């Protein structure tokens, strides 16, 4: 089988890239090891956000104001793109609600930092969607007395993540774009005029390849080159049975300011609560129990409400905390490393990735200007992640 461009991975990144390549008159094929959305795209928290792991003020300090502004614009572009995609592709059941997000300060130090950030965003970037809430408003918003204040960001909202990715795939298939599931790419090989993707079901020949495997880049050796530049980090979620009491009436996403961040939202009439998952290859009962304990401490009103669903997935972290869209060489492009915030960005990045594949110039801010560095001491990354996470938990516990 042959195509102009072969894309590895049928999550938001892979499907978005296929969409924009096809719109440019190029024939893509998407090859997925498992099912559509089987990676993070089908199992995430559905928080539609335009933020990055590095704050915009910090970007202005490390790079310059223009860079921070470009990244802020990119985040808004990604959020807007979610609504446009649902409309243009006629995606049913994505249930996108642009209700914004609320960052909940877990102590006074965190609140002061949020206030400084809000002042900077409104004063320097002119972002009028940002405002601060006091303790009473936080109680009214969250039902919890845990938070002395918070920062409301009216950009973004919440979505049904699996229906979004499935709807995207259905629309692309309807346009005649080929998507092959249950077909892991096991090896990449060079030919005189292109590249071969080896699978157990045959070989796909293409002129260009796009790697869109993010936190799942260690499934096979085909994506070894990017695997060594990512740290997969397990993110876990639990959901309660259907709630019989009102909660989180504004229907936003809510995140805590702790370094080992916990977040929550309502979805399908349940409370969904997320945070760090187990270290290593598999889920652990202890990580889910820790999440449930934190949820019940924060929301004592959930006494008697059972947790009925528990699951986790892998996010792709990078050494510089930034996502990256770049080329490995003249044949292979990759986009990955969303550091846990990829619903909006990964589903928009195909716009830029398609241009890069076609050899056109594209500006996705730091995503395209910074190089993706390898993870030093890759073999000991798991104990290193454990060590850093333990240190962050310690800082959270002592209120720093
Ligand atoms: C539990 C959890 C909660 C999250 N919550 C949020 C949130 O609320 N908001 C937010 O913005 N982001 C969130 N994220 C992050 C977000 O889901 C990801 O950034 C985004 O889905 C990345 O999409 P992707 O298409 O790049 O990768 P993925 O969706 O992970 O897709 C990669 C695909 O590549 C396939 N693959 C891998 N190797 C091969 C191979 N050799 N051959 C063929 N196919 C292969 C995999 O099977 C997989 O389907 C969360 C992530 C997790 C895990």
From TrEMBL:
Residues 4-356 form the FAD dependent oxidoreductase domain. InterPro entries: FAD-dep_OxRdtase, FAD/NAD-bd_sf. GO terms for molecular function: oxidoreductase activity. It comes from the Bacteria. Its EC number is 1.-.-.-. Keywords: Oxidoreductase. Gene3D superfamilies: D-Amino Acid Oxidase, subunit A, domain 2 (3.30.9.10), FAD/NAD(P)-binding domain (3.50.50.60). The keyword Oxidoreductase applies. It is an enzyme of class 1 (oxidoreductase). It holds the Pfam family DAO. This is FAD-dependent oxidoreductase.
